[in-house]
Design brief:
Distance between the termini: 34 Å
Number of domains: 2
CATH superfamily of the largest domain: Isopropylmalate Dehydrogenase
Radius of gyration: 21 Å
Order of helices and strands: EHEHEHHEHEEHEHEEHHHEEHH
Number of helices: 12
Helix content: 40-55%
Strand order of the largest sheet: 3-2-1-4-11-10-5-6-9-7-8
Number of strands: 11
Structural class: alpha/beta
CATH architecture of the largest domain: 3-Layer(aba) Sandwich
């Protein structure tokens, strides 16, 4: 079992935990026997749900006395103690007992505790929060999504390298197109940091990615670029806008197709296409933000996702380790 990927799981974070977390582990294990789960949490609660649904050779429960609450500020979470499931799961990767860590808990607390325990990759000044977004041709990596409100051109260049490395880890056969999120596609558009970053990336020769210049908000999902770079403020606004738009379209379509006899008949006739549409916008498929720039990747599952979404984020953990993300970043950041 030594060749299994060891995933440290904070089982007590997010809505419906630990049941949701354990159900996600069980669901993931049904289709993938490459992972070993080090499960951190209150053992007597976890034991109620894990029973005999997974072979004991594929998991270990580490009993913890305390948990980080969703209402804790990052400082309160750090002060809560080193006996929480979140702290101990991160400490597990720090001590090289696990390969990667995942939590559906408090995002601010996770980022702060990760930064307190884990070292930065050499030559990277700031870690970034990245995630996967759907586009017309497949998937895009987007960063930063809120870890850094203000960024220098050096930070944005680093994000480009990290984002491209993440994309290559997840999709090893593809060479990504990297673009800077901006208010226009012309070279002179944007603030000084964006323009300076453009110049640096334009002059940079990389075998890791192709620099595609600027991308505007309305072009984010056309599939022409695979890695989208911004500061954390802009990226977070773009993320929330995209999520809100997807929810609006889905709910309005559902309302239109169930509000009248004609709509109901139309939905029955188009059931196959509607299911494809629904699946394409299913947020569970894209669950799993990645905190990169530290010497160990930290994966943040959405706190409100269900066990399917959590299982999908475990797949992301598996691909990151198999794709040697940290080595790729170190090699390209030199």
């Amino acid at each position: 079992m030594s060749d299994l990927i060891k995933i440290a799981v904070d089982a007590m974070g997010g809505d419906g935990s630990p049941k949701k977390i354990i159900d996600g582990i069980i669901h993931n294990h049904k289709s993938n026997h490459e992972n070993f789960f080090k499960i951190f949490g209150v053992k007597k609660e976890i034991d109620r749900y894990i029973d005999k649904r997974i072979d004991k050779n594929f998991y270990e429960i580490i009993d913890t006395k305390n948990i980080v609450k969703s209402t804790d500020s990052p400082l309160e979470a750090a002060k809560r103690g080193k006996d929480t499931s979140m702290w101990l799961s991160i400490e597990s990767v720090k001590n090289k007992e696990s390969d990667i860590v995942i939590s559906a808990g408090n995002t601010g607390a996770l980022l702060v505790i990760a930064k307190l325990n884990l070292k930065m990759i050499e030559n990277i000044d700031k870690p970034a929060l990245s995630a996967l977004w759907p586009n017309k041709k497949g998937m895009s990596v987007v960063l930063d999504l809120g870890a850094n409100i203000e960024c220098s051109s050096k930070n944005l260049v680093d994000f480009s390298i990290m984002g491209a490395s993440l994309y290559k880890s997840l999709y090893p056969l593809e060479n990504p197109n990297v673009a800077l999120l901006n208010i226009g596609s012309e070279e002179l558009k944007g603030n000084e940091v964006i323009k300076e970053t453009f110049q640096k990336l334009n002059e940079k020769k990389s075998n890791n990615f192709n620099f595609a210049g600027y991308v505007e908000g309305d072009k984010l999902m056309n599939g022409e670029v695979n890695v989208i770079i911004s500061d954390g403020f802009t990226g977070n606004v773009a993320l929330k806008t995209a999520e809100g738009t997807a929810n609006f379209i889905t709910s309005e379509l559902k309302k239109a197709l169930s509000g009248s006899i004609l709509g109901k008949i139309s939905s029955i006739l188009n059931i196959s296409n509607l299911n494809k549409f629904k699946k394409r916008l299913d947020p569970r498929l894209y669950n799993g933000a990645i905190f990169i720039g530290l010497d160990t990747p930290v994966v943040k599952s959405h706190g409100g996702t269900d066990y399917i979404g959590f299982s999908n984020s475990l797949d992301v953990c598996n691909k990151i380790i198999k794709g040697n993300l940290i080595d790729k970043i170190k090699e390209n950041i030199k």
